Amino acid sequence: MDLRQRFADPTEQQDAAGRGLQAGMWTAVPCTIVSVDYGKQTCSVQPTQKVAVRKPDGSQEWQSLPVLPDAPLHFPGGGGVSLTFPVKAGDEALAIIASRPTDSWQQSGGEQQQNARRMHDLSDAFVMVGFRSNPKALSGMSSDAVQLRSDDGLASIALKPNGQMDINTPGAINIAAASDVNYTGTINVTGDIVLNGISLKTHKHTGVTTGGDNTGGPVS
Which end of the chain is more exposed for a tag (fewer CB within 10 A), N or C? Predict the structure, then answer.
């Protein structure tokens, strides 16, 4: 039995009531991605903080919170451009709990009337990925550049305050443009450049003659 049920203490009663209200008010909770709907940019997440539940016999049991479904997933964006991530199940995230219902806004966008009176409810979560617990912290983070990188650090694009940009990848870099690719500056290449199967380093020319004539086209 809870001892507060045996002794009448108005101050303790008020404190208990306040703590009870706080216990039902959610603001933010760490969670794990369960599934992602890329079509709607929403996800289902499992909160990772268990809650203590007092049983009828007075004992206490730690229980998992329910999965939060269909929560809007945050991708940074604005002005007609966005940055997206291949979010997958198991990724760590933070669920931000709205102070009022978000159903009408999520369905229709714009300014909407509230369709319920709930406040700080777990069902009104917005999810942000990128937060990490200590065991999943990234290694080799740059302290002098902003990076777009793979978690293992093998592939990265880094921009430094002095304007220098570094690109590193163990694989290929593919560029597809509907129009011309224009470049101004000097290109220093270690290796070779291959254009339509013709090596810039080892190609030969046809129609070679002495004198002032031009050679023929290059061959692979």
Answer: N
